[in-house]
Amino acid sequence: MSFKKELQQWCADSLHDVLGFTDVALSSYLAHVALKAKTPDDILQVLKESQTDITQSLVDFSRQIFQRARRNKPTESTRTNADWIKAATKYEMLGDDQIGEKKMSRKEEKRQQKAEKKEERIRKRRYRGPSSSEDEDSGGVDRIRLKAEERRYRRVQQKEEEEVDERDQDIKERDDFVKRLKERDQLKTKQIHTEHEAEKESDENRVKMEERLARGETVVDEKSGEAINIEKLREHSRRAYLKKREERELKLLQRSLQDEDELFRGARLTATEQKQLAIKKQILSMARERIEKEDLNDGFYRLPDELNLKQAKADQDKALLTSRYLEPSKEKSEQELWEESQTAKAAALSHAKRKTNMTDKQEYELVFEDQIDFVMQETKKGYDRRKKKVDSIEETDVSKPEGPQFLAEHEKILAGRKRLPVYPYREEFLAAVKAHQVLILVGETGSGKTTQIPQYLHEIGYSELGKIGCTQPRRVAAMSVAARVAQEMDVKLGHEVGYSIRFEDCTSPQTKILYLTDGKLLREILNEPDLASYSCMVVDEAHERTLHTDILFGLLKDIVRFRKDLKLIVSSATLDAEKFSKYFDGASIFMIPGRMFPVDM
């Protein structure tokens, strides 16, 4: 056991006798203090700082531990030979030339020794003279090696000088660049400051002019020398406002075009969307051209772009007339349709009268010298219904009201609905929908699934519980089918029947039947996860199996499990409906046969 540990053990035992308790940390600390202390009062001071009551026993304890530490403290005379050897390795002998110099590191010493040896070797080779033929040969080899080393040294030195020059050049360019940036920032700051000051000064002058005009004083413009009134000031302020508004609107238009380019790059746009995008780009380009021309204040007059000297005056006028804006075609009202029909009837009537007048004149047949006899087999007698059509036109009264004609057209549409293959199975289909929550509907193309099924559900009252939705894989199909169903129901598109596609929503709060794309229904599920506003959902063209349709199947399967009042109809044009039935937990399959056509073999 070492002396320090023995002192700590004695201190712990003595503390237990003096204070009635002991502590390893306290005994270790007091032993360390005793070894460093010069008098017993130093130990006693440490005990006082620990807020311990000083008694005679503590004074005796401090004296005893100090004497024990002084008596057994190791000195130089008690060192062993191993201690002396260990201490001697820390020192080195210094030469006469090294006295007073800074001690070098071991690596620097080795590097310096190598350099000295190399210089000594080169000096010996350079000044050593040949004493014999062998010495001459070896001297020639040494000279060649020496020259090679000198060339290598020059190359290294030249490379280092080039690197230094390149580094200095980079630093210089960097400093110049920083200087230019600072000058440009200062110039911009000055320009902005001057612009702000000029704008502020003009505002103050305008306010002063308004105050003077309000007091009834006459104000004269310093530049033009004309009298200024309130109307001119208002006109000036309106021009300034319109200029700022034009700049702001152009920035907004440019940003909107950039956003559309980034968001819808590669997407298929409708004709209306493409036309709107082209109009926006044309407006932006025309505004930029006008601004560029206004900025050219060089004092020269320039002809407008429309006036081209190479073209004739008539061609220029024609180009200007054809390039004007044309009003887009809109859906015609019933009054306009009736007027067009009456105009057509009057034109046909006048044409028929002119033709009857021409028959009274003498007509001659053309006579050909060479007649060709054609041989024809299996001919059928032709017919001419033009006279009947003219007679019917003459019999019609132009002054008849418009109601019966349009009722007849609607009745034709209703008759066409009854001729569809799906009509005979109407009652059976509605009974199947009532009995099953999920139904797989299989019918050939043209049987009337897309247009008639939502109408049947609407007619028996499902639309009173919520909207009837029908998904389509394409936007054009959703728009055209919605227009056809609105025509069959004799309602306006967008009211009871509507459609919803990307960038276009033709619906209203009164919409009962809604045709929408698969992606649009996915977007509605994000906003309304349980489809609470729908009572029936028809997934049409399920056999196409698009990505959106497959995702819809998974979502709708979860929705119908906790919404027992939601009716789901999966419509397909193929006979492979077993997969859909298995996926929807064995849903029933309803078959609708297609239309038969006579074929001659």
Structure description:
The protein has 601 residues and is an alpha/beta fold. Among the domains are: 3-75; 420-592, Rossmann fold (3-Layer(aba) Sandwich), CATH 3.40.50. It is built from 19 helices and ten strands. The protein has helices at 3-19, 24-36, 40-49, 56-71, 81-88, 106-127, 133-214, 230-263, 271-295, 313-322, 334-359, 386-395, 403-418, 426-435, 449-459, 475-489, 518-527, 547-562, 578-583, and strands at 219-220, 227-228, 438-443, 467-472, 497-501, 504-506, 513-517, 534-539, 567-572, 588-592. Strands 6-5-7-4-8-9-3-10 form an eight-stranded mixed beta sheet, sandwiched between helices. It has a two-stranded antiparallel ribbon with strand order 1-2. Helix 3 (40-49) crosses helix 4 (56-71). The longest helix is centred in the N-terminal third of the chain and has 82 residues, at 133-214. The protein is extended. Residues 127-137 and 396-406 have low confidence and may be disordered. This is Helicase ATP-binding domain-containing protein. Residues 99-122 have a biased composition (Basic and acidic residues). Keywords: Hydrolase, Nucleus. It is found in: Nucleus. Residues 96-142, 188-207 are annotated as: Disordered.
Quick one: CATH class of the domain at 420-592?
Alpha Beta
Poorly predicted segments: 127-137, 396-406
What's the Cα radius of gyration?
A: 54 Å
Q: What percentage of residues falls in helices of 4 or more residues? A: 55-70%
The CATH homologous superfamily of the domain at 420-592 corresponds to P-loop containing nucleotide triphosphate hydrolases
CATH architecture title of the domain at 420-592: 3-Layer(aba) Sandwich
- Secondary structure: number of strands: 10
Q: Categorize the overall geometry.
A: extended
Number of helices: 19
Query: In percent, how much strand structure appears in the residues?
Result: 5-15%
Average pLDDT taken over every residue: 77
The fold-level CATH name of the domain at 420-592 is Rossmann fold
Largest sheet: 8 strands, mixed
Q: Give the H and E element order.
A: HHHHHHHEEHHHHHHHEHEHEEEHEHEHE
Q: Quickly give the structural class.
A: alpha/beta
Strand order of the largest sheet: 6-5-7-4-8-9-3-10
**What is the end-to-end distance?**
122 Å
